[in-house]
Specification:
three-stranded parallel sheet; 14 helices; two-stranded parallel ribbon; elongated; mainly alpha; single chain; about 325 residues
Length: about 325
């Protein structure tokens, strides 16, 4: 039995992942799997909460997200990788926790109002969407997770999880530990238009995209607005291309030259992008080759998910025994 501290995280299968996911989460997961007992979930129930009207892509998206994870280096030998709905206890714990979660806690959740505004093309006025933070709390607590690796923007969700833990334990005794926040080192990855990289903005560079496609996107990417002409001087810190350089380019000497070149107009934006592209290709080429090889056999991918679900169920069943016993249910 793995005695290491457990951690849990998940992603919704809404499509192929992009460089922002890689920089902001996946590279960190690859490191964490060597230190902790990791459970990584493909959160198909969460995807249903916003895509319930058209579920035709969810199954294929589960495989796409798995391919991206494996290609980047998430290892099924080191971590339990599974689909959320394949572990029925996720639904059970969600129902149990929903019994004690006050409506006001859900309505004040900051991302609830944000999502309602951002996804106005979808009807999100559903019971499930309002309650998704409770399902998220259940996902975490089902594995009695010591901590959750999150970015700063997700810390509010984790605090709500801790509030639910305190309320549940107050009613039924000490069943759940309060999960800690394992902050993911910030890696800024702007999109092609300078905003946060996001599928919904149409400004992303996808992990699965070939290098020709990536270059065609990068060469038209916005730069420092002060550099309208080749002879204009710029400020790297105001340029989204520079932020991507900081992730991919580990050559300190070249970075210093590019910084000076931008400040003095000694280097043009196209030249800067060409140098960036060389570093992107160096990092992404082996990742894409692994992805292409893994995609050849879906049966192998299915087996990985089945084995991951088996490992997850062992922990999930033990947790639900504690929950039913604490709630004094006939089970």
């Amino acid at each position: 039995m793995d005695e290491r501290k457990r951690i849990f995280s998940a992603m919704r299968p809404t499509g192929k992942l992009h460089y922002g996911h890689m920089a902001g989460a996946l590279f960190n997961w690859v490191k964490l799997q060597n230190e902790y007992n990791c459970f990584w979930g493909i959160a198909d129930w969460h995807a249903m909460m916003s895509d319930y009207a058209d579920t035709s892509r969810i199954k294929d998206n589960c495989y796409e997200i798995l391919l991206d994870w494996l290609a980047v280096g998430v290892d099924p030998e080191k971590s339990a990788i599974f689909v959320q709905s394949h572990v029925k206890q996720h639904a059970e714990i969600h129902l149990a926790l929903s019994m004690i979660t006050p409506l006001g806690w859900l309505q004040r959740c900051p991302t609830y109002k944000e999502q309602i505004l951002n996804l106005q093309n979808k009807d999100l006025s559903t019971y499930a969407f309002l309650g998704y933070p409770t399902l998220m709390a259940g996902d975490i607590l089902l594995y009695r997770s010591w901590a959750v690796p999150v970015g700063e923007d997700q810390s509010a969700h984790l605090e709500l999880t801790r509030e639910i833990v305190r309320r549940f334990n107050g009613f039924y005794g000490e069943v759940f530990p309060e999960p800690e926040t394992l902050l993911t080192p910030a890696a800024k990855m702007p999109g092609l238009d300078g905003r946060k990289m996001s599928k919904s903005y149409g400004n992303s560079l996808d992990i699965a995209e070939d290098m020709d496609t990536v270059w065609n996107k990068l060469r038209t990417m916005v730069t420092d607005p002060a550099r309208e002409r080749r002879t204009d001087k710029g400020t790297p810190e105001k340029c989204p291309v520079w932020d991507i350089h900081k992730f991919f380019n580990k050559n300190a000497e070249e970075m210093a030259e590019l910084h000076e070149g931008c400040l003095t107009a000694g280097c043009g934006c196209v030249d800067c992008k060409k140098k960036l592209m060389a570093h992107v290709a160096e990092m992404m080429d082996p990742i894409q080759k692994r992805r292409a090889e893994l995609a050849k056999n879906r049966d192998d991918l299915t087996q990985i998910l089945e084995e991951g679900a088996k490992r997850a169920r062992v922990v999930a069943e033990a947790t639900m025994e504690k929950v039913y016993t604490a709630m004094k249910m006939l089970h």
